[in-house]
Amino acid sequence: MCGIIGVSNHKEAANIAFLGLYALQHRGEEAAGIASYDGKDIHIVKKPGLVADAFDEESLKGLKGKAAIGHTRYSTTGSSNYKNIQPFLVTHRKRPLAVSHNGNLTNTETLYEKLEEDGAIFQTSMDSELIIHLLAKSRNGDMKKWFQEVLSQLKGAFSLVFLVGDIIVGARDCQGFRPLCLGKIDDGYILASESCALDLIHAEFIREIEPGEIIFIDKNKIESVYLAGREKEKKAYCIFENVYFARPDSNIFGESIYQVRKGLGAQLAKEHPVKADFAMSIPDSGNYAAVGYAQELGLPLEVGIIRNHYIGRTFIQPSQFLRDFSVRVKLNPIKSALKGKKIVVIEDSIVRGTTSRGRVEDLRKAGAKEIHMRISCPPIISPCFYGIDFPSKKELIAASKSVKEIADFIKVDSLEYLSLKGMLSVMTEHGSYCDACYTGNYPVEIPKNTGKYLLEGAG
Ligand code: AMP
């Protein structure tokens, strides 16, 4: 996970990057950063915390220049070391070279080993730093060939935005695991993880960066080259972006996420209808599938749980007495709506099963008589090696329990999941998705994980 943005040829480059990161906040809440270049000096601000906490008026003012890149970080292994906050910046051939990365590389061990043997020393524990080392090592003088040569050595998931002097470079791996789109604002261009970042600043959406494309934005001139062998690679867009991760007001992978989620709900209703008094969602992630589910069956849609949007970070450590405090402060059931009712609850996915179990308990306490749960994707049985922060197989409840056993664990009257075929049928390009979390079929060889080099994904 992680959100990335790049802005070229605009006098408000850093402010635009800042606003764009706000829209991409859901992609990473752990840290945020922006690097800008004013033709002479490089400026960088990065801090742990939400976008709103990482910058203030003063620090934004200092981010001068017409080119900027930014990053919101979701650490995949919990290391919140300052050094690991992106953009990752170095000086190379007397000009700044910075990168923001979304996705996880899968051949880090091989690359790391080679680089270390050649004398490289590393500042961070991020896979993204490898890319900078490879760029620094290359002797290729031509900018396009330089990036082509280096990025063709990477395997796994990467959507990247670079700042090279005042040139912005964007790239997407050949499978297109993570999204990246191009927009225009005044005489400048923007690259962003999701189109919702463009809407916020009234930028015009131009197109998505193609899988295997490297795009160079030099002021208002755009040129693209392609990664070696991209024609042979099958596309593998991350289906979990559509199910849960991307914002519903974004268009990614050629789809409106809102319509996809509604479609998943409608398909779920066709496969597993319930004659309930009403349908409801677990907010916010289940909202959109719940609309589709209720519309398909002509069921009333009620708001059975209210989400508090003002919680920020909870600093009270959970004690026995305050057990589950952080979840309860976020979601509260409406007793008057639930009392004595037979309900069908729509949730986007079950990962560990622990929050679902807690929500069901709350609904029961609030007076719901019968609780049927419907999940708008298939059971998640395998971890992700391409950038989604799923726990190990041990913690994925569906990896070891049957649907009936999960239903017993979360204490619902019935539980059903959307079928894989049904889920894929909702997407226009249904053969172009990575569904490894549901099938264990990994489209790119997964890391051997010998544990020799413990590199993290950028997120
Ligand atoms: P649980 O019932 O504990 O598995 O939590 C399910 C909720 O957490 C669903 O809304 C999931 O979509 C959401 N979720 C999404 N991604 C993750 C993740 N990487 N790890 C844990 N929970 C996630």
**First CA to last CA: what distance?**
4 Å
Broad CATH class of the largest domain? Alpha Beta
Strand order of the largest sheet: 3-2-4-1-10-9-11
What name is given to the CATH topology of the largest domain? Glutamine Phosphoribosylpyrophosphate, subunit 1, domain 1
Total DSSP helices: 17
Indicate the CATH architecture of the largest domain.
4-Layer Sandwich
Principal-axis shape: globular
* CA gyration radius, whole angstroms: 23 Å
The major sheet is characterized as: 7 strands, antiparallel
Low-confidence stretches: none
* Count of DSSP strands: 23
Compute the average pLDDT: 92
Q: Bound small molecules, which ones?
A: adenosine monophosphate
Based on secondary structure, the structural category is alpha+beta
How would you describe the oligomerization state of the chains in this entry? Answer: single chain
- Give the fraction of residues assigned to helices: 25-40%
